[in-house]
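Exercise 7. Given the encoded structure of a 211-residue chain, write a plausible sequence.
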C-alpha cells in the first residue's frame, strides 16, 4: 500500500479551463504547486489515487511528499476544489514548504468527552462553533489535530481558543490578532428545550395532581 502522505503527479504544460477539462477527461486531477524560490508548476494527479488519500483526515494538515516526474518535493495541501454534486475533485493547490520557515495551516479540532460532559448529563446539548482552527508553526511542529476536552463543561459554558492545549512551538493565528474579541468560543453546552430538571418538575406536578 502506498504512503498516504505521498502524492504522485506528472507535470503538464498547458493552463486554462480547456486544458483542465482535458486532464479530467483522462481520469486525472489538475493541480498546481507553488511557493519557495521555484516557479509555480502545473501538475496532474490520478483521480482515484487522490480520493483514496483524501479519506485520511490527516492529509489536510500534514507535510506531504509530492513526487513530480520522479522528483520529490515537500509540500502541504493549501486548497481543494470539489464538484458540488458529484464525488469528483476538480483542482488541487499545493504549497512548497521550507523546514526552517513558519507556515500557517488549518488543522481539525477533535472533541473528546462530549457524551460525559457535566452539562450533557444534565440534559444539555453540545454544539461546535468551529471544527478547525488556523495555526502557525514550523513544518516539523505541525499537529495532525488539536484536542478539545468538553468533560468539565456545564450548561451555559464554553471552551475558547485560549483554552485549547497546544504542542510546543504552535500558535493559534486568531489569538495573535490585535484588539479584543479574538478569543472565540469553539464549543458550548446549551440547554435543551426539555432538560432533566424540567422533566423532574413535570413529574412532581403530575404526582401532586394525582394526590
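Solution.
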Amino acid at each position: 500500500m502506498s504512503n498516504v502522505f505521498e502524492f504522485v503527479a506528472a507535470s503538464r504544460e498547458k493552463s486554462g479551463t480547456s486544458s483542465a477539462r482535458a486532464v479530467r477527461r483522462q481520469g486525472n486531477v489538475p493541480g498546481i504547486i507553488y511557493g519557495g524560490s521555484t516557479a509555480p508548476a502545473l501538475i496532474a494527479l490520478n483521480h482515484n489515487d487522490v480520493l483514496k488519500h483524501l479519506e485520511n483526515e490527516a492529509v489536510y494538515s500534514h507535510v506531504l511528499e509530492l513526487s513530480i516526474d520522479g522528483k520529490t518535493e515537500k509540500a502541504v495541501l493549501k486548497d481543494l476544489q470539489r464538484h458540488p454534486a458529484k464525488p469528483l475533485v476538480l483542482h488541487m493547490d499545493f504549497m512548497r514548504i521550507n523546514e526552517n520557515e513558519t507556515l500557517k495551516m488549518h488543522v481539525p479540532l477533535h472533541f473528546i468527552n462530549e457524551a460525559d460532559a457535566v452539562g450533557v448529563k444534565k440534559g444539555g446539548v453540545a454544539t461546535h462553533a468551529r471544527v478547525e482552527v488556523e495555526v502557525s508553526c514550523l513544518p516539523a511542529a505541525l499537529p495532525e489535530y488539536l484536542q478539545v476536552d468538553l468533560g468539565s463543561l456545564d450548561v451555559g459554558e464554553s471552551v475558547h481558543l485560549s483554552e485549547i492545549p497546544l504542542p510546543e512551538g504552535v500558535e493559534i493565528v486568531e489569538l495573535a490578532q490585535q484588539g479584543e474579541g479574538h478569543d472565540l468560543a469553539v464549543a458550548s453546552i446549551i440547554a435543551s428545550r426539555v432538560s432533566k430538571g424540567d422533566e423532574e418538575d413535570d413529574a412532581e406536578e403530575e404526582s401532586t395532581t394525582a394526590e
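Remark. The first helix runs from residue 17 to 25. Students should compare their own answers with the one above.
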